C-alpha cells in the first residue's frame, strides 16, 4: 500500500493553546465603512457577499464610517452605553454572589454586551425575543428591574419562577422575553413559529432569537432556517459567534470551512456577518433585518462576530484551554470602550462623565442587590415546596395532589 | 347525528374547531392540499384557507418547535406527525419544551398544542409504521396522553384535547380507522357504520380527558385496555365465556384511577392489555397502581398481554400482535390463579 493514500482524520485545533501566544493571523478584518448597505428588499441571492464579509461601522479612531452608519441621536447612544455598562457591572456583582455561595451558578456576558443591548435598541419593544442564556443585556436594555433578575438568580421568595429554574434562566413575559430553556437551540424554531403566527394573524410584531455558534450544529438550528425560509417568517435569527462553546473553539462547529452566516445561503436567507463588538454596526444590521422582516421580505440570519471575554459559566475555567491573554488581544476590541470612544469623539461624552456613570451604576447595583438579598438567597429558599406541584399542568391533576400530600403538603 | 368512521370523526372534530376558533391552525406533512395520507384533514384547507391548514417540510422537530412558538403567540396549533414512529426527531421539543414550558416559566408561558399521531400495528407496516410509543410520553411530566377506541370518543376527545391549555399527545390507532378490528385478521372487518359508536354528533361536544369508559360491564375480571385492544379484549371476553369488565382507559395521563380501582375491587382480578412492548410499558404502571390500591382485593396475580419486547416484525405480524387468543389465555390464567 502506498502510504500517501492512507486516509487520515482531521481533528480541528485552535490557533493557540495555554502558554502559547494568541494567534489572530488568519483573521481577516476589513476596514470599517467599506460595505454598501443594500435595500432591505434586496433578493437574498444578491446578498451572498455579506456572509463572507464583516460589516463594520466604527473605525480604530471611533469614527462612524460608511453607508451602514446608522442615524442615532447622541442621547440614545448614551442610553446604549449605559445599558452595556450596567450589564457588565451587574454581571461582575452577580459573579461575586456566586463565589460567596449565595447562588449556585452564574453566566456572564462580558465582551458581548453590544450584541444584546444594540439589538434590543434596534428592535421594537413589542417584538418577541427568544434568547439563549447569555443575552441578559436584552432585559437590561428593555429597562427590566435588576431586583427581579437578582431574585431569580437567588431563587428567593420573590423569584417569579418559584425556585424552579437554574439561575439566569429568566422569563419575563411583560418584556417580551421568552423563558430561557437551557437546552440549546430549542428556542430557534419556536421563534420562527411565533413569527409565523404573527404573520398568520396580520400582526405587525416580529420575532428574534439567539444561539451561539456551537449550537448551529444542533438540528433545531436547521429546522428554524428551513421553516423560516419556506414560510418567509418575519424573524431575525442571530448567531453569536463568541469563538467558544465551553472549551470547544468554533472549528468544532464547522467554522474552519465557512462562516456561520454562510449557512443561510443554502436556505435562500440573507446571511449578514457583523462585527459584534461594534455597537453601531450591530444596531444597523439588526435594524436592516427587522425592517426587512416587517416589510414581508422574510427572515435574516446575522452572525455576530465577537469574543467571549470571560468563562463560559461559573463552572468553567478557560485558562485550561486557551491563552489567558487571548481576550485582551482580540483585534476587535471591547464594545463598551469602542462606543465610549465614539461618543467622546463626537463631543457627547467625557472621561469624567464615564467615571461618574460607572460609579452611579455600581451604587445602583449594590442598592438593588441589598434589596434582593433582603428577600433571601439560595440558602434561604422560597417558603413552601407546595408550589413545586403547580404549573406542571394548568390545573393540578389528582395524581399530583396525592404526591403533594405524600410529601406532607 | 351522522355515521362516521374514525377518520371522518377526526376530520369532523378538526372542522368544528377550525370553525369555532380562529386561533386553531392545522399543519403537518401532506395535511394541506392533499388532506393527509390517512385523509383526516381532507377538504379542510379548501374550506378554511392555506394559512389555517397547510403542509410542512419533513422535519418533525421543526413541526413541533414551530407549533410551540405558535402556541406561545396565542394560537391553538394541531400538528400531525404522519406516523407515531416518526415522532422521535421531535422528542426534545416535546419533552424539554412543550411539557415543561409552563412550569419553568412560573406559569408565564405555555403551549396549548395538540399532536396527532397515527399509531399501532395490524396493518403490515413493519417496524417503522406500527409502533405504540404512548408509554414513552406518559413518563414525561407535563404531557397529556390520549388514545381513543372509536369514532364517537375520537371526536369528543380530540375537541377536548384542542381546547385543553396543556400539550396533548393524541394517538390514533390506525388499525381501527375504518372499523372495530378485534384481532381476527382472517375475518372481514365490520365497518363503523354497523357499530353504535359510529354514530357521531355533527357539532361540538367533548369527551373529557382523564375519564375512562366501561366498554363492557362484568363481574369476574377487570380488563384494562385502550385503542385497538379494547375491541380485541371485547372479543376475547365473549369467546372465553368469562364475565370480564372491559375498561377503555381513553386517557392514559391523566389516568382515571378511581374507575380502575372500583372495578378491580369488585372483580378481584385484573388483566392489562396493550400493543406496545412490555418492559416499562404503560401496563407496568397500571399493574403497579392496581397493586398499590387493590392488593388486598386481588385473588390472583395481575396478567399482562402486550407486544413482545422486539421491534415490530413485518412477516410475523400476527405472532407479534396481541390477539384475542392471547387475551383469552390470560383471562383463563387469571381465573385459575
Task: Give an account of the 3D structure.
The complex is a heterodimer of chains A (409) and B (337). With 409 residues, chain A is α/β, with parallel strands linked by helices. Chain A folds into 2 domains: 39-378, 3-Layer(aba) Sandwich (Rossmann fold); 384-409, no CATH class. Chain A is built from 10 helices and 7 strands. Chain A has helices at 74-99, 113-122, 136-141, 146-154, 187-200, 219-231, 279-294, 335-345, 351-374, 398-407; strands at 128-130, 207-212, 235-241, 244-245, 248-249, 271-275, 300-305. In chain A, the strands form 2 sheets. Chain A has a 5-stranded parallel β-sheet with strand order 1-2-3-7-6, with helices on both faces. In chain A, strands 4-5 form a two-stranded antiparallel sheet. The longest helix of chain A is centred in the first third of the chain and has 26 residues, at 74-99. In chain A, 49% of the residues are buried. In chain B, the strands form 3 sheets. A 7-stranded mixed β-sheet of chain B has the order 3-2-4-5-7-6-12, sandwiched between helices. In chain B, strands 9-11-10-13-14 form a 5-stranded mixed β-sheet, with helices on both faces. A two-stranded antiparallel sheet of chain B has the order 1-8. The mean pLDDT of chain B is 98. In chain B, helix 1 (6-20) packs parallel to helix 7 (151-163). Chain B has 337 residues and is an alpha/beta fold. In chain B, 61% of the residues are buried. Classes of the chains: A alpha/beta (409), B alpha/beta (337). Chains A and B meet through helix 5 and helix 6 of A and helix 3, helix 4 and helix 5 of B.
Characteristic key phrases:
heterodimer; A: alpha/beta; two-stranded antiparallel sheet; B: 337 residues; alpha/beta; Rossmann fold; 2 domains; 7-stranded mixed sheet; 12 helices; 35% helix; 18% strand
List the helices and strands and how they pair.
The complex is a heterodimer of chains A (409) and B (337).
Chain A: H1 74-99, H2 113-122, E1 128-130, H3 136-141, H4 146-154, H5 187-200, E2 207-212, H6 219-231, E3 235-241, E4 244-245, E5 248-249, E6 271-275, H7 279-294, E7 300-305, H8 335-345, H9 351-374, H10 398-407
Helix pairs in contact in A: 1-2, 1-8, 1-9, 2-7, 4-9, 5-6
Chain B: E1 2-3, H1 6-20, E2 24-28, H2 44-48, E3 53-55, H3 60-73, E4 76-80, H4 91-98, H5 101-104, E5 114-119, H6 134-138, E6 144-146, H7 151-163, E7 168-173, E8 199-200, E9 213-216, E10 221-225, H8 228-240, E11 244-248, E12 251-253, H9 257-267, E13 270-277, H10 282-294, E14 303-307, H11 317-320, H12 324-336
Parallel strand pairs in B: 2-3, 2-4, 4-5, 5-7, 6-7, 10-11, 10-13, 13-14
Antiparallel strand pairs in B: 1-8, 6-12, 9-11
Helix pairs in contact in B: 1-7, 3-4, 8-12, 9-10
